[in-house]
Write a structure and sequence with these properties.
The structure is a homotetramer of 338-residue chains.
Chain A (H helix, E strand, L loop, with lengths): L1 E4 L5 H13 L3 E6 L4 E6 L2 H5 L9 E5 L19 E3 L2 E3 L5 E5 L6 H13 L4 E3 L17 H14 L2 E5 L6 H5 L4 E4 L7 H9 L4 E5 L6 H13 L5 E5 L15 H10 L4 E3 L1 H5 L2 H14 L3 E5 L17 H18 L4
Parallel strand pairs in A: 7-8, 7-14, 8-9, 9-10, 10-11, 11-12, 12-13, 13-14
Antiparallel strand pairs in A: 1-3, 1-4, 2-3, 5-6
Chain lengths: 338, 338, 338, 338
């Protein structure tokens, strides 16, 4: 429920209502604005009715939040959220490009890629230390050693670090090594993991859509994180599973446009997993720009043939330079800047 | 099989080989180029081997066509096909916009829309006279009366006509009324219909992808039309059926980029059916431009609320003007012109 | 709308109401029962209201048909329809087995299979003369020659013939050769084909579910045939297209149980296409029996390796004997007979 | 790699080879049989080649395991695994029925259901204490209090307990309360959870297929558990996500038959989630029996209308009695016993 206060309402008026909300076991929200203060009350429908807000003269308007998701909804917050990844802004008037290898493999590999990205003006590095792999016999990532390498790359090149978390117990550990937790498609409904990054950190969380998750389920997964205490969520469309086998997944750009209308959170696109075909990454990156995404996250590798995972879809240094040149005029057409 | 002749080969050399190809029951293809003449031979692998092309001194190179589709393949023809719709070009350096109502309903309706489109610089009008409807109790279209209205709109406004064919027996009848046959998603594998427009006409055919057809099946359906004698095929991605229900279909822009690499035929996008949500048509149209599509086909209606079919996804005159303004900078960014 | 007449209503009372229904342009239905006569009126909601049935004293009860499909609905007819295929009954207390090759290839092939089936007690032979193939370069069937062979098998072995129709123009031609038209998955929404077998014949029609058709769309496709005049429709689940690639299709037995509740028409299962894997045909046939299907249609071939189409999923004579033995106790458990 | 020893090989011969396997960092497996001893070596292909098994005279035959999954494969173990759930056997010649409420709600609710199940001869009770819910605002389960109630039901009625685990940290805690961990569809690829129940317990694990997981991915998820040390895995098909909306999921019985051929693990079916429609549970349970499943797991509730979750698909006491009577003749037809 959204509670719009009158222009003349004082902070004390707001607090009085917030106390009432909390006293009933509901979740109170305080959203001061330039002209008006807006309050929120989240919880059970029947309890919400017990608020009797008509008794508060400073309440101007009451609006229910119709969608099943609340905190992520544009009904609650109309303007775009801009999320900080170690100080770098994602969302708003920026088109972000996050790049890096699927897996962290060695210092040589990671520093080589970091240098290349730095030269291209990239400020955020992705790289997996913990890899969720379909087979227990596949390379599972370097673990803490990988995190150390990421931290070293951060210090050496000033890049902000995006890395995947797969265990709720790692939330605290990773906090010092990274600037943004990534939650992968397979873990989108690993609710304990969502709660862990929501409760134990205020660092940004890049939440990828599950491979057969509906848009509503993605928004409710984001709601778990924010409800647990961390509002810094970035969504990511990475392709859904369909009958088509020519591409690894079917990138759902409908979902990106739809999400931008329903939520105030930034929405990125992962064209590497979304297509699984190297030659399709550029056209789909351009399309992601044009559809209104807030950025892309792409896999790069200086020697894709020797990559320990996902080499077939990794861009080389030359490929990446071409990609950046390729999307530039489209970013300009949106009025955003890289 | 593709047979590249030497630069000094004469037309007679080519004919000799073509005769040999035909004599074995194979399909001969003659593709003269500026520098070299290229021949094709299509048919059973085992028979192809009986050609013994090493016996012809003017043959420079022989290449197998690896894909199951041949005539539509870029392996056979590397450059883009540009298809004429009543003289208007689709493909190449043009971004085409085809617009009009789902169903032709009346002269007033059709002329009103036509005038609006004309003012927006649109040259191709879509409108259904024969409607394939899920229920036998739904409006089935005006039939020949609808075709008459389309013809009248063509004469009055100079618009080229795109209209759906659903019965092989209508191919000859429709020929005089329209400039481009549309084959709908439900009929993509109605092989007798594909053969009918292939054999009985040389007018353009806009072939829509079936709602659960793979990209390869779409290309093989196009192959049916060309193999039957009509090379003027335009492909159209219109959304596929997935688990997601927030949108009517999932527009597969991966497929558009993939098709542009595999075939020389133009590829359009239908964002109206591809999303089924009016507010998503503009962002997905921009994305279609950026991904490399050769155009879009959109549903428009001056009074969507009174439309006899698909009113919820039809753009009004104002919506349409906004759409055109919206895509303009993105078309410019591709280097194409509207 | 369903109109239940009072027990004492005469045939003249019924006719009076039927005339009124027809006079308004609605479709009248006459369904005399042992105790009561039931009438039906189908058409536009607003016109239905103009019937003013309260003016007829012999009307006992009026019930709307809530589903979008009417003639196929159990709301209209509660008891199971039993459909005759050349005198052999499908539906009710029988579990039917239709078998035969994917394509008719030669007299030797067809007679060999027919003899084998006859020995197994099978009475209905399937075999394609017109084949809808994904590629124009694949074997397209023997055409009329194939129909002649099917007719010969009918005469020689007394088998009833089930064969696919792919062109509305063939409805009359095929009528003399076959006992049951088959409409394949790709043509489920080829509405002109549905109308052709509905208008031009009263022979049974085996309607297969499209590979991404919803259950409701299947029922509406059947409604097209019955609405056009032919009530003898048999439905067939043959697998839907999903992300799973271990099997050719995903056989949807949920749909069979759901259909049996919603419609009075018989429902068969095609485990050959539904799995595409020979070793899965027996277990899924048993499951089809148990879920309540009215029969199965399976592909058989005496030399699967030499089959011109679908050889990998065809059962040999031995396989088929095993299948029959395998399903027998499960058919007994349902209380039906083979 | 599977290593078949000669009949005359001694235990010492086996140990020698197992030591060699282990010394190279490969995983050794010891599978003594009545006539022959079979050994296994799992790990990197290149290392496997370094075993030089031709040097061991007691090695009779060496066979590679072709599938990507090894420990779960029938290539490794041809005979059916029978898994103990607190002493009750699942798999082999038994058809198991596990039943109970979606969520544990109260002692009254749980004991009521337990008594009813006991009367029906059921020995395994399912009930969720930790519920993975799409929305953070939905009932999340009673947690440890729920586990206490389950333990009480075990003591009172002698039922074996099956309950869902959603956090790797709960593996040890739950060990004392339950007889079988359930891993839900959303957590099928929560690899840390798979490892937790694999490493920290030897109790049975019921692993449900993810809603868009391929069969191979399910087998590899099971491989994670066994590879971590716990061989007692039971698989469960619970419906996959497709375009069809008439049912909550599409129950994939193809997968059950396919799994029974590829793996030695027992395979159950969950017709409650697999259909989401109460009236479809019985026919699909019968089909599950007939297709060769080793059992079913169904949701029951004495007052479905008051259930805190999934009430619409829960069977009442009467429904459940009907279900048991309904499947009985089909179980008999398979030669198994309830």
């Amino acid at each position: 429920m959204i509670i719009v206060l009158k222009a003349e309402a004082s902070e004390q008026d707001a607090n009085e209502i917030l106390d009432k909300i909390a006293s009933l076991g509901l979740k109170p929200l305080y959203m001061p604005g330039v002209e008006r203060t807006v309050l929120g009350a989240l919880g059970d429908e029947r309890v919400l009715r017990q608020l009797h807000l008509d008794a508060y003269p400073m309440v101007d308007e009451i609006k229910p939040i119709l969608s099943p998701y609340k905190l992520v909804s544009r009904e609650l917050q109309a303007h775009d959220s801009v999320i900080s990844v170690g100080g770098v802004k994602v969302g708003g008037n920026t088109f972000s490009v996050i790049a890096g290898p699927c897996s962290v493999e060695s210092e040589e590999q990671l520093f080589g890629i970091s240098q290349m990205l730095k030269q291209q003006g990239i400020t955020m590095l992705r790289g997996g230390a913990f890899k969720p792999r379909t087979s227990p016999y596949s390379f599972q990532g370097l673990g803490v050693e990988g995190l150390e390498l990421l931290k070293a790359a951060r210090e050496e090149f000033g890049l902000k670090i995006v890395s995947e978390i797969i265990d709720p117990n790692d939330a605290k550990l990773m906090h010092d090594y990274i600037d943004c937790y990534q939650i992968g498609a397979r873990n989108m409904q690993n609710f304990r993991l969502l709660e862990a990054v929501g409760e134990q950190s205020d660092k940004a969380v890049l939440l990828k859509r599950g491979m057969s998750a509906t848009i509503e389920e993605l928004l409710l997964a984001a709601e778990y994180i924010i409800n647990a205490g961390n509002p810094n969520v970035i969504l990511c469309e990475r392709g859904i599973r369909t009958f088509e086998t020519a591409t690894r997944n079917t990138l759902d750009l409908n979902a990106v446009a739809y999400l931008k209308q329903k939520t105030h959170l930034p929405v990125l696109v992962d064209p590497s997993h979304g297509t699984g075909v190297k030659s399709l990454i550029n056209p789909l990156s351009r399309a992601s720009v044009a559809v209104g995404a807030d950025g892309i996250i792409v896999e790069t590798h200086l020697n894709p043939k020797e990559a320990l995972s996902d080499g077939h879809q990794a861009l080389t240094a030359d490929d990446f330079a071409t990609l950046m040149a390729d999307i530039k005029p489209f970013v300009a057409a949106t009025g955003k800047s890289l």
